[in-house]
Amino acid sequence: MSEADPDFFTDPRVIQDPRGYFDHMRSQCPVMRERYQNSMMVTGYDAVMEVLNRRDDVYSSAVNVLGPVQGLPFEPEGSDIRDQLEARRHEMAWSDHLACYDGQRHAVHRQLMTDLLTFKRLKANEQYLYALVDRLLDDLLPRRKFNAAREYAHATATFAISDILGIPMEDRWDLVELLGAPPSQLDGEATHRVGPDPLIFLKERFDGYLRDRLETPQADLMTELLNSKYRDGTSPSFDQFSLLARFMFGAGQDTTSRVIAMAIRVLGDDRTLQALLRAEPGRIPDFIEEVLRLEAPVKVNYRLAVEDTQLAGQDIPAGTVLTVGLMAASTDPAHFPEPDRIDLDRPNKRDHLGFSKGVHGCLGAPLARMEIRVALERLLARTRDIRISEEHHGPPEARRYVYEPTYTFRSLAELHVELDPA
Ligand code: HEM
Predict the structure, then answer these.
(1) What is the CATH number of the domain that holds 334?
(2) How far apart are CA 285 and CA 379, in angstroms?
(3) How many domains are contained in the chain?
């Protein structure tokens, strides 16, 4: 580690330019200890894949959302900390949610969710989305100027996941308002002192939706969720159903919204590419993969080594947190030549880690891809030109984009565009 390494977790320069940070770290070593949180920073494609694909539960996901910053609730002792972790993991942030489960507990709950996201459900959601996006555009296009991050991307993604779950129509705008910007992760300790369930603010609502469905079943995902059973025929508890529904809502909302906004930013900055996609909408899916590779909303996730192990020749003692550079891997030049270039013909573009991979890999990826495609398809079809607002973001040679202050996510705070309707 070097004195010159910026602090990944607090330095505003890293928020602004995460790829610059990852390149800097990777050029020293694809697996190296960073000196601020003492985690192992994993930035090489092969090393990241090794962590994500390791099947023997050497790497726990107990720290998956907040990483090393929250600290462990115990002092790791010895070469195997599994018992210590099991005794205290309920005290850790997000421990109630799927992303932080391990082993069998993770597998059985993930299966419940996978069973619900059927092709038929996706197709129905796609029809809803085309109508929704056109309604949003009917309102936005006559204005010719708007904040595409909030008024288009955020609204589309919130409505889409609400529709999949079956949230009542009259509550959807309410949720768009309620779920504003993510909380800052840079404002000191307060933001890390969250309990095991940071989605608690949605609990009352979702408990209510589920209770309504117990009384009056409906043709929607939440009703089906309540009828789900584990493979051994037993049923999850009501609280478990509520946790899963809330997590799916949270996981599916802001991530997708961030990619839609980022894709519009890229198109506003590259009008040639914009014109090409308008002329050839069939290439939009290739473009989406490249945006997910370069600018995916989840920059890193985290794992905890529960026994002494090795990674890329480095010793990893039990109790070490790994900061797993998903974005770093997706821009590793050893795997993606000319990584900073959007290349619609890149042969291995689906290798990116925007959705992560392995047992925890995103299970909403097909839904997210569809949502982003519909949002871009309709926006391009209904405009002749989309420009980035110079008033808000400066001229092309000196753009100013502000990103949300979070080390885990990549998220434009706002995106002001001007456009000419078709
Ligand atoms: C572009 C949008 C999205 C991106 C970039 C994204 C990305 C991710 C990433 C990086 C993970 C973590 C995987 C890991 O820890 O290794 C994840 C997990 C997850 N995502 Fe997504 N996601 C998106 C949209 C969605 C949507 C729409 C849904 C809703 C259906 C969803 C549901 C989930 C769930 C349930 C998990 C937890 C999986 C597990 O722990 O087994 N995601 N996602």
Answers:
(1) 1.10.630.10
(2) 14
(3) 1
Span from the CA of 375 to the centroid of ligand 1 (angstroms): 19
pLDDT along the chain (422 residues), means of 10: 81 95 96 96 98 92 92 95 96 89 94 90 91 95 95 91 89 74 47 58 88 92 93 91 90 91 98 98 98 96 97 96 98 97 96 97 95 97 98 96 92 96 94
Q: What angle do CA 383, 384, 389 make, to 5 degrees?
A: 80
Domain of 68, in residue numbers: 12-421
Going by the DSSP 8-state scheme, the letter that residue 74 receives in this structure is S
Q: Is residue 37 part of a domain?
A: yes
Nearest CA to ligand 1 atom 36: 362
| Crossing angle (nearest 10°) for helices 238-269 and 103-116 | 70
- Quick check: is 3 in a domain? no
Determine, yes or no, domain membership for 269. yes
Q: Does 171 fall in a domain? A: yes
What is the CA(355)–ligand 1 centre distance, in A? 6
Which protein residues touch ligand 1 with a CB less than 6 Å away? 64, 98-99, 110, 113, 117, 161, 248, 251-252, 255-256, 259, 296-298, 301, 326, 354-356, 360-364, 367-368
Using one digit for the tens of pLDDT, what is the confidence trace for 176-220?
777 654 444 555 443 444 556 667 778 888 999 999 999 999 988
Cα separation, 382 vs 373, whole angstroms: 14
